[in-house]
Amino acid sequence: MPDLDDDLKFALRLADAADAISGARFRANDLDVTTKPDRTHVTDADQAVERAIRELIETERGSDEILGEEYGSAGGDPRAAHRLWIVDPIDGTHSYERGLPMWGTLIALVTDGEPVLGVASSPALAGSDGVGKRWWAAVGGGAWIREGEGEPTRLRVSGIRKLADASISIQSIRQWDATGHLDQLVALSRTVWRDRAYGDVWAYTLLAEGLIEAVAEFGLHPYDIAALIPIVEEAGGRVTAADGSSALWDGSAVATNGAIHDEFLTLLGD
To answer: Taking residues 41-69, what's their average pLDDT?
Structure first.
């Protein structure tokens, strides 16, 4: 079996392949957008990215299982897999189709139910050299960012220790309302220093960079959060479900810098 360093190198190559496809189709005049049965949108780029990632995994990690947003899982219950790649080909499809740059590909490896590495790649969040941003982490190896062609730098969450001083991302009011958490959202907005809705992959990477202190959202799928758990945790943060349990399969996620986590969960439970 490959070791974690090899798996991370492989995941970064998967992200390279994804960026080449998604970047070429971003803001394309002929981008094809359709509506799935759950009323969410999918583009031809989402599908092409996931197909490319699946082909590489099947070729180079043939005994591993795959769970992707667009094509699901080919095996049995993915929760029982020893080695499971979880892929969101374009996290933030609605931003992608509108030409907004806050989207990215999420790639995670989960072993025996635990996310052990994650890569988030956002080629449209480009710097002065025209090359995008990428964040990654593997358990025990820290969390890292590369901006453009620069050298990777290590990530660290902020040192803010009180919810009243925190800047948070709530993702969307609709999420909180649809899951019966609107009262807690109002209470939270009255407690924190600043609340915004940065959205999707970008919010979690801002947290890992130490630029905000918390992200909370509901109505999640495993492919929305799996890759981001190692990145936040290896940067010194904490990720749980809204009730404090594991976030991977729960459908909710609270990610913080760690210092304000318990206070955040207490407010959600009120």
So the answer is: 95
Structure tokens given for 269? 């439970």
| Contact of 66 with 55, CB cutoff 8 Å | no
Q: Are residues 138 and 66 in the same domain?
A: yes
> How far is it, in rounded angstroms, from Cα 80 to Cα 153?
35
CA–CA separation, 14 and 29 (whole Å)? 26
Dist CA 174 CA 90 (whole Å): 21
Tokens 């025996």 -> residue: 112
Residues 119 and 206 placed together within one structural domain of the fold: no
CA dist 204 and 97 (Å) reads: 21
Residues in the chain: 270
Shared domain for 58 and 174, answered yes or no, is: no
The tally of domains found in the chain comes to: 2
pLDDT, tens only, 100-157: 999 999 999 999 999 999 999 999 998 766 779 999 999 999 999 999 888 999 999 9
Answer positive or negative: Cα dihedral of 21, 104, 49, 26: negative
| CATH code: domain of residue 114 | 3.30.540.10
Residue identified by tokens 């449209």 is 124
Q: How many CA atoms lie within 13 A of 177 on its CB side?
A: 3
Question: pLDDT tens, 223-244?
Answer: 999 999 999 999 999 999 999 9
Domain range for 176 is: 163-269
Residue where a domain terminates, one of 154, 177, 204: 154
